[in-house]
UniProtKB/TrEMBL annotation:
InterPro entries: AAA+_ATPase, ABC1_TM_dom, ABC_transporter-like_ATP-bd, ABC_transporter-like_CS, Type_1_exporter. Residues 29-311 form the ABC transmembrane type-1 domain. It holds the Pfam family ABC_tran. The keyword ATP-binding applies. The chain crosses the membrane at residues 28-53, 65-85, 139-161, 167-186, 254-276, 282-300. This is ABC transporter ATP-binding protein/permease. It is found in: Membrane. It comes from the Bacteria. Keywords: ATP-binding, Membrane, Nucleotide-binding, Transmembrane, Transmembrane helix.
Length: 585
């Protein structure tokens, strides 16, 4: 962020955050009115107290006692009601806005994924989704309305004090300005520290998440000490940032208390001078002192909140960075009838690099996959197999060349239609914490239970599912029944079969299966996907052998293509790959 941007960042944040309240403007007006009512009833109760002291001095307290008690009770009740109303309405609005933020953030992540994950670790992203949004509660429940209350209430009190002692009004105005200057003076430091604290927290969260996700590896690879050191270093960094932040917070608070204290003293001296020298009624003394203290009260309160603006706006920046992230691919929005599209895939001179400063992941590759053909993509690690799949699924766009389906450039097909064309099974299968039946039905929400079970039978999943304690109603996923890698993979294959798309994309569909299940699944894919075009990343010999044709990738280029027999006879790249790779045997 450059200096010019930094200068306007607070204003920009206030404007864009305030716009979020537009939808709830009537409630905000009600909250502000309740806030002003709350502050004025505090003033009324305090002035009543001061008046009581005055009456006692003048010896008239017993005559007025009934009125004093009645008025004090009324002020207290009014205060309680206004306070409750302000809190309820502010928090109602704040939590609604936070929910809006969360929904929009998730939409953005969906829209820009995987671009967002390229620049942010998943732990940092989770930190924004949860922690940064939570911080916004301060702004919506305790800042926006409070600022207006802190302006309106002192103005009303100053009008009243002006009638009694104008000179003190002017002095109080000076103290109010001094109080407001303190957070403005510390603004740059507060913003910088707020940014650093939120970033350090997000990094520490990311390391903690890494520890949870990689717990198995940490234990089996004896990485415990190494991980703990790394975790400690991040926590230490976070502690230092938080401590500097708190020190500045303390200094600001101390200065604000000083302003409050000195203003009280000055008000007391001025009021005393007027009572002593100017003949003002003694009973007015306490009223004046209380009124002047009340003028500054809301101003100090809002300045106290402003001490945390650094954190609030740093969190807002991080939220908007996700909301405004640009997607890597533009959706043409061009919906087509996918039934009219022949499932023929054509890569035409495709080149792609993940970042400009990196080497090409694939370079000038061309191949055609006929409709209904089952093709395996083979190659050593890093050869560019997954990249081809990513480009085909349009998670990224090609840098040069183009990919066509049924002769149509995939950039001219809407992402929704493109998604209808493919059913994918990737290596990391995610199961939601819902019954297995519903996990499979995600493939096609309109499928009947019978259709779901038919797909599970084809994927050789039916048997093990029915043996589970609750059969198809067994809750899978985190917190549910623990399934093996192979079982999860078969559920994902059932999902793909159920979806019934004309193109099936597998990132090694059988990698987690034993030999018996691997053979069965290969047969099932051959039979069930007879009319589908199938693209498989192959890490196993069985996948390579089962394919109609193999495309061999080497260092981002197509090294050779052909049937298994042709390539074996050729004695070229595939033969060497099979000889050198243990997994391929
Ligand atoms: N997200 C990414 N950002 C930057 N570079 C990447 C990214 N993903 C892959 N690469 C690089 O692109 C090249 C091709 O990777 P790719 O994942 O396509 O290979 P692969 O053949 O699928 O390998 P593997 O069999 O190990 O999965 C590699 O050099 C890899 O380091």
């Amino acid at each position: 962020m450059n200096k010019e941007e930094q200068k306007f960042t607070r204003l920009k944040n206030v404007i864009r955050l305030s716009k979020r309240l537009k939808k709830y403007r009537l409630r905000m007006v009600a909250a502000i009115a309740a806030g002003v009512g709350n502050q004025l009833s505090i003033v009324a109760a305090s002035v009543l107290g001061a008046w009581t002291v005055g009456l006692a001095i003048d010896g008239k307290l017993m005559q007025e006692l009934n009125y004093v008690i009645a008025a004090t009770i009324a002020a207290i009740i009014i205060r309680i009601v206004f306070y409750a109303l302000e809190m309820w309405i502010c928090h109602d609005v704040a939590f609604k806005v936070l929910a809006d933020f969360r929904i929009q953030l998730f939409d953005s992540i969906e829209r820009v994924s995987p671009a967002i994950l390229l620049n942010m670790r998943s732990g940092q992203l989770a930190s924004t989704l949860m922690g940064d949004v939570e911080i916004m509660e301060w702004f919506f429940a305790h800042t926006f309305g409070s600022v207006l209350v802190a302006v309106i209430t002192p103005v009303i009190l100053m009008i009243i004090l002006w009638q009694i002692l104008p000179i003190l009004d002017l002095v109080m105005l000076l103290f109010a300005v001094a109080a407001v200057i303190i957070p403005i003076w510390m603004k740059k430091k507060a913003d910088e520290q707020g940014r650093e604290v939120r970033e350090a927290l997000a990094d520490a969260n990311a390391v903690t998440l890494e520890g949870v996700q990689g717990l198995k590896e940490i234990l089996t690879l004896n990485y415990r000490t190494g991980y703990e050191e790394k975790n400690r270093a991040y926590l230490e960094r976070m502690y230092k940032k938080q401590f500097s932040y708190s020190k500045r917070l303390g200094t600001e608070g101390m200065l604000l208390q000083m302003v409050l204290g000195v203003s009280g003293l000055v008000a007391a001296l001025i009021a005393a001078w007027y009572v002593g020298k100017d003949g003002m009624a003694a009973s007015m003394y306490t009223i004046i002192v209380v009124l002047s203290a009340m003028i500054l009260g809301p101003v100090i309160e809002i300045c106290n909140t402003a001490r945390n603006f650094g954190l609030i706006f740093a969190a807002a920046d991080r939220i908007y960075r996700v909301l405004e992230a640009k997607p890597l691919v533009q959706d043409s929005g061009n919906d087509i009838n996918t039934k009219d599209l022949t499932p023929e895939i054509c890569f035409e001179n495709v080149s792609f690099r993940y970042r400009e400063d990196l080497e090409a992941a694939v370079e000038d590759i061309s191949f055609r996959i006929q409709p209904g053909e089952h093709v395996a993509i083979a190659g050593a690690s890093g050869a560019g197999k997954t990249t081809c799949i990513q480009l085909l699924l349009r998670n990224w766009d090609t840098e040069k060349g183009c990919i066509r389906i049924g002769g149509k450039d995939i950039r001219d097909i809407s992402l929704r239609s493109l998604n209808e064309m493919y059913a994918t099974v990737l290596q990391d299968v995610y199961l939601f914490q819902i019954p297995i039946l519903e996990n499979i039905r995600l493939g096609r929400s309109s499928a009947t239970d019978e259709e779901v079970m038919e797909a599970a039978r084809k994927a050789f999943a039916h048997e093990f599912i029915t043996e589970l304690p609750d059969g198809y109603q067994t809750i899978a996923g985190e917190g549910g029944v623990k399934l093996s890698g192979g079982q999860r993979q078969r559920i994902a294959i059932a999902r793909a079969f159920l979806k019934g798309s004309p193109i099936l994309v597998f990132d090694e569909a059988v990698s987690n299966l034993d030999t018996e299940n691997e053979r069965k699944i290969q047969e099932s894919i051959e039979q069930s996907a007879q009319n589908c075009t199938v693209v498989m990343i192959a890490h196993r010999m069985s996948t390579i052998k089962s394919a109609d044709r193999i495309i061999c990738m080497d260092h981002g280029k197509v090294a050779e293509m052909g049937t298994f027999e042709e390539l074996m006879k050729k004695n070229g790249y595939l033969k060497k790959l099979l000889e050198n790779s243990e997994d391929m045997k």
